[in-house]
């Protein structure tokens, strides 16, 4: 049996990572969280951390918007292309082995989501777009304790394009636990029946834990 994919897609600081963490305890079957940061952190710092600037790896293009606020876009060269392709194939291998996956994805450009659709064609998948107002995103961005790069949320706000989604959810006023519960409720009916069934030896009800870390 192959696993299924729940994809959480959106810009930086929209709450993907914290929602994924809050979603995991709501699902009695193990779901592995796989995100772009996991793969970026595997890059040597001088290629992923951008001090080299434009080249084969990844780098920030830092600018100032018309209103004077920072805007940052991540660009990548051929090594970045290989990394993103490897990420897609790694997720496919996890699904082939029977693992369920929660994908935490911030598209770097408008080629990223079509790449996922192409490479995961034929797999069971549920796509969720998380959005938020720009003021909410930038307030969260300023408050981040790790992975902060001012302008990242603004720079990747509109790179999703016209891709279809099963659920679009505005997280501006929602805690991660609320986001996770709404994502769970939106899953296909047969997935919900599977996930709501008590597991053998569990003693009945599945524990419903709704942790609420800071939006990430």
TrEMBL record:
Pfam family, one: CPT
SUPFAM superfamilies: P-loop containing nucleoside triphosphate hydrolases
Positions with biased composition (Basic and acidic residues): 190-199
Entry annotation: catalytic residues: 37
Protein keywords: Transferase
GO molecular function: ATP binding; transferase activity
Annotated residues for binding of ATP: 10-17
Region annotated Disordered, chain positions: 190-216
UniProt name for this protein: Chloramphenicol phosphotransferase
């Amino acid at each position: 049996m192959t696993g299924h994919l729940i994809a959480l897609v959106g810009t930086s600081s929209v709450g993907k990572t914290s929602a994924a963490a809050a979603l995991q305890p709501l699902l009695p079957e193990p779901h592995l969280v796989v995100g772009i940061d996991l793969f970026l952190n595997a890059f040597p710092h001088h290629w992923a951390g951008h001090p080299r600037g434009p080249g084969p790896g990844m780098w920030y293009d830092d600018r100032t918007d018309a209103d004077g606020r920072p805007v940052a876009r991540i660009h990548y060269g051929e090594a970045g292309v290989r990394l993103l392709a490897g990420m897609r194939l790694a997720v496919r291998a996890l699904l082939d082995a029977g693992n369920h996956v929660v994908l935490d994805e911030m598209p770097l450009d408008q080629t990223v989501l079509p790449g996922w659709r192409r490479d995961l064609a034929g797999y069971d998948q549920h796509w969720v777009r998380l959005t938020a107002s720009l003021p909410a995103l930038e307030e969260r961005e300023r408050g981040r304790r790790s992975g902060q790069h001012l302008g990242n949320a603004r720079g990747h706000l509109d790179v999703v394009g016209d891709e279809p989604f099963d659920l679009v959810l505005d997280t501006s006023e929602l805690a991660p636990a609320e986001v996770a519960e709404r994502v769970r409720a939106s899953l296909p009916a047969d997935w919900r029946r599977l996930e709501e069934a008590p597991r053998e030896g569990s003693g009945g009800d599945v524990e419903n834990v709704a942790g609420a870390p800071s939006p990430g």
